[in-house]
Amino acid sequence: MIGLAHFLTVAAMVFAIGLYGLLTKRTVVGILMSIELMLNAVNINLIAFSRFITPDVLTGQVFVIFTIAVAAAEVAIGLAMVFRVYRDRNTVHAARLNEMRW
Amino acid sequence: MNIALLTSEIAVLVLGLLIIIFDVLIPRQETHRSLGYIAACGVLAILVHSMTQYGAAATVYQGLFVVDNLALFFKQLFLAATFLTLLFSVEYVEKWIQNSGEFYALLLFALLGMMVMASANDLITMFIGMELMAIVFYALVGFELRSKKSSEAGMKYLMLGAASSAIMLYGMSWVYGFTGSLVLSQIAVKATASPAMLLGMGLMLAGLCFKLSIVPFHMWAPDVYEGAPTPITAMLAMGSKAAAFAVLIRVFLIAFSDLQEYWATIVSLLAAASMIVGIVVAIWQTNIKRMLAYSSIAQAGYILSGLLAGNVAGVKGMLFYAVLYMFATAGAFAVSTAVKNHNGSDEIEGFSGLAQKSPLLAVVMTISLLSMAGLPPMAGFVGKLYLFTAIADKGYLWLVILGFVMSMISVYYYMLVVKTMYSKARDQQEFVVRGSLQVVAVISLLASLFIGIYPGPLAKLANFAAQALW
Measured between alpha carbons, how far is B50 from B68 in angstroms, rounded to an integer? Predict the structure, then answer.
């Protein structure tokens, strides 16, 4: 029988993979994809809690719709910004974003 | 449902949409300066109108959106900050930025996001307001199309900001899972110190500290502040920070108030680290925006310490300090904008001889910086006094002593800028300052001095607003 713990474990694994990607990916697009993974882990968490903890009210599922919409907006801005960076310096490597440092 | 409680938010939204329409109607080759003034007048009108809403204590949308004195106080702070920013940004936008209409409209949408954050009574509303503000700021930070620094700053802000909101959301999902609710007052009823709850609370604190640029979540701030267009840097320091404090106060003093023994130690260490790092690293900066970024990290540490008191006096200190920091920042960035318009650089060296070319701006910069440092009779002194007395009562004497020592050190690097301004001019070019920028400079000067000498009215108002929480 698949229960709450299974969903939470999967979500935690997806979140960890996203976090790992965020720290190790060298291109900006890869980093954006890792962030998407982290947001999707949150969605799994919210839906699982909504189904098992509060089956009568749909608060968690409503929240998921909002996070999906916000994530889409974030990626839209992110990709626009990738275009700008590419036009400025002909690369999307995160390490080349080094104009400013202290 | 009483839609009248939402008038200020609706008015800001309509104003932003109107600016977009006017932008299309004005022919491309003509100046779009008027849009900035229209937006500023609109924001001022909304600010005046919002005065009538004091005393309300009601919720809209089944308790998701609350209108009380605390929310209103923060909304007026955001409106005032946007008003001042719009006024001093007109010349900058004309000179360095294309698409000025969209710039003003986006600024208003960011304002809307902050206002929603101030009224958030549950985690969904809080998240939506925060993302509305953050996504608009990602775009605005990268808005200076001719500058490579600007696109880099925008990209960095977006990557780190999105990651921090994902981390905060993960925390929220655990809080939801443990309490079964997203409304702050219901979370407070069911919150107990279990590992899941503490994990959620810790992750939410980390996400909020990112927005506040509290050490160790501050790494983005210097780069983003340096690369962003100067008026946006000012808005990040004044608005985005205060909005995050509005959320922090509500979440930690309502939802997590029973867990104070668990978060108090961490918050006190975070505040202390911000004061130390912000002030010590600022000493070596040669770029004025970078220097102000580190200084704003330290100021955030000061304001955060007020949370430790966990009572009306502490929140009152935070509100009071947020307002005086808003005025000091507006003054400092208005002068930086004028200098950048004059010689195209953000370096502190570029300020040399400002006292001869424009004595007024030099005085405004001096007063603003000394107010941030906390020297009497400027407003910063009174603000620190309120904050420190509130937390000293709760036994955080070590933090108070650290704060005083650090603010004495900060006088050193603020005085370096002042020294540069009063040194001999390098060039003899005439210094032209637009009237609207001078208005902002004078407002900030008068506010910093008035609040410092006669703090009574603002303190009373902040106290009145803080009482809404209890």
Answer: 12
Contact criterion met (CB < 8 Å) for A100 and B142 = no
How many residue pairs from chains A and B have C-beta atoms closer than 8 A?
118
Residues from chain B that touch A78, judged by Cβ atoms under 8 A, are: 138, 158-159, 162
pLDDT of B3 reads 84
Q: Please give the sequence-ordered ranges of beta strands (E in DSSP) within chain A, or none if there are none.
A: none
Q: Would you kindly state where each structural domain of chain A is located, as residue ranges?
A: 4-96
A22:B163 CB<8 A? yes
Lowest mean pLDDT of B193-207, B427-441, B444-458, name the range: B427-441
Chain B interface includes A64 (CB < 8 A): no
Cα separation of A23 and A19, whole Å? 6
Q: How many CB atoms are located within 10 Å of the residue B120 CB?
A: 24
* Inter-residue contact B296 to B413 (CB < 8 Å): no
Is the confidence at residue A88, as pLDDT, over 90?
A: no
Residue B163 has its nearest CB partner, among A35, A54, A60, at A35
Report the predicted TM-score, pTM, of the whole model to 2 decimal places: 0.96
Chain A nearest-CA residue for B291: A102
In angstroms, what separates the C-alpha of B152 from chain A's closest C-alpha? Answer: 6
In angstroms, what separates the C-alpha of B410 from chain A's closest C-alpha?
A: 19
Q: How far is A33 from chain B (nearest CA, A)?
A: 10
What pLDDT digit, counting tens, does each position of B444-462 carry?
A: 999 999 999 999 999 999 9
Question: Which pairs from A81-90 meet CB under 8 Å and 24+ separation?
Answer: A81/B138, A81/B142, A81/B151, A81/B154, A81/B155, A81/B158, A82/A28, A82/A29, A82/A32, A82/B155, A84/B142, A84/B145, A84/B151, A84/B154, A84/B155, A85/A28, A85/B151, A85/B152, A85/B155, A88/B148, A88/B151, A88/B152, A89/B148
The reply to whether residue A49 touches residue B176, judged by beta carbons under 8 angstroms, is yes
Can you give the pLDDT at residue B87?
A: 95
Q: Which fold does the domain A4-96 belong to in CATH?
A: Helix Hairpins (1.10.287)
